[in-house]
Design a protein that fits this description.
Helix content is about 80%, strand content about 0%. The chain is mainly alpha-helical.
C-alpha cells in the first residue's frame, strides 16, 4: 500500500470517487484526436489535409463535453 494515501482515500476511489467511465473515454478520445490532428497537419498529402479539416467536427463537441466535465468537477469541490 502506498504511504501517500490513507485507507479512506482508497475506499473513496473504489466506490466511485474518481472519474467515471464516460469522462475517461471523452478525455482520452479528445487527446487522441488532438494528437492525430497535429500529426496529420505535418504531412503534405491531400488525404492528410482533408482529414485535418474534418477532425474538428469531432474535436469541438468533445471540447464542450470536457469543459462541462471540468466545470462540474470544480463546482462539486466548492
Amino acid at each position: 500500500m502506498y504511504t501517500t494515501m490513507d485507507p479512506s482515500s482508497w475506499s473513496a476511489l473504489a466506490t466511485g470517487g474518481g472519474a467515471s467511465s464516460p469522462e475517461i473515454i471523452t478525455t482520452v478520445t479528445l487527446i487522441l484526436l488532438l494528437i492525430m490532428r497535429e500529426l496529420l497537419g505535418s504531412l503534405e498529402s491531400p488525404w492528410a489535409r482533408r482529414l485535418t479539416h474534418v477532425l474538428p467536427v469531432g474535436i469541438v463537441p468533445l471540447l464542450i463535453v470536457f469543459a462541462a466535465t471540468v466545470a462540474a468537477r470544480i463546482a462539486a469541490m466548492l
